Amino acid sequence: MSARFDDKVVLITGGAGAIAGATAQAFADAGATVVLAGRTAEQLAEAAAKIHAPAGRIDWLTADVTDSAQAANMVAEVVRRHGGLHIAFNSAGVFGKAAPVADLDENVWQSVLDVNLTGVFLSMKHEIAHMRANGGGAIINMASNIGAHGRRPGLSAYAASKAAVSVLTQTAARDHIADGIRINAVSPGASDTPMSFRPGETRADRDARVATTVPAGRVSSPSEVAATVVWLASPESSFVVGHDLVVDGGATA
After folding, report:
1. Do residues 93 and 70 make contact, with C-beta atoms less than 8 angstroms apart?
2. Is 3 a residue whose pLDDT tops 90?
């Protein structure tokens, strides 16, 4: 991919995550200014320090995207510091403790939906408000191959939240393409992140399990998911609107 983002400002929520970090690096490599957002300052500072980029191209700020005022301030602060917001990758998400529906703690259900769904809604709401008033932009939401594309026992809260993100993305895309804002989603399968491990699993255990369930025979690297996000944000995908792009090695094909 040859797209450049030299004059673009990119916001990434869930900024301390592995896929967020790989995506930040990919945008930085293409010339963008990248702002990582999340709840924990120490984790964000550590994540930002791992990004190789010219001085001033990587920044971070704390925000809880489940709170509308904080989501609004997040966007306003990005604009104040860097003069605009052109691209957003809403990747903040949690897995939640797995349990059958009858045994699922209601607080776990609410927490997963608050972060994975309401957090995406509130982030988009305020990102769109800025982009609509300033010539448009591109938004990519983190969905999952667990949700609209496939289900797993014990993951009802996560699957429901991510299926809703897929539909929310499509609806928002229809609402705002006339405003010059392209909105799409990416749905990764198992990637080489902490969320890909079951409790007590070693890397060898995980890789052996994945080899029997994923046609490609492995988990993705975070950089493979990042490349998909960067493409969805680029002019090279200019006619892609409201799409949910699955990146799972054929697991839900």
Report:
1. no
2. no
Q: What are phi and psi of 239, to 5 degrees?
A: -105, 15
Element holding 251 (H helix, E strand) = none
- For residue 55, what are the contacts with CB-CB under 8 A and spacing of at least 6? none
Structural domains counted in the chain: 1
Model confidence at 187, pLDDT cuts 50, 70, 90, reads: very high
Q: Which of 5, 121, 158, 231 is catalytic?
A: 158
Residue 84 belongs to what domain range? 9-247
Q: Does the active-site annotation cover 158?
A: yes
Instruction: Give the tens place of pLDDT for each residue, 32-69.
Output: 999 999 999 999 999 999 999 988 899 999 999 999 99
Check which CATH number belongs to the domain holding 92 and give it.
Answer: 3.40.50.720
Cα separations in angstroms, 78 against 59, 75, 152: 9, 5, 37
pLDDT at 211: 92
Assess if residue 26 is contained within a domain: yes
User: Are β-strands 181-188 and 137-142 bridged in parallel, bridged antiparallel, or unpaired?
Assistant: parallel
The candidate with the shortest Cα–Cα distance to 189, out of 154, 165, 224, is 224
Q: Is 190 exposed, middle or buried (0-12, 13-18, 19+ CB in 10 A)?
A: buried
Strand partners, 140: 89, 184
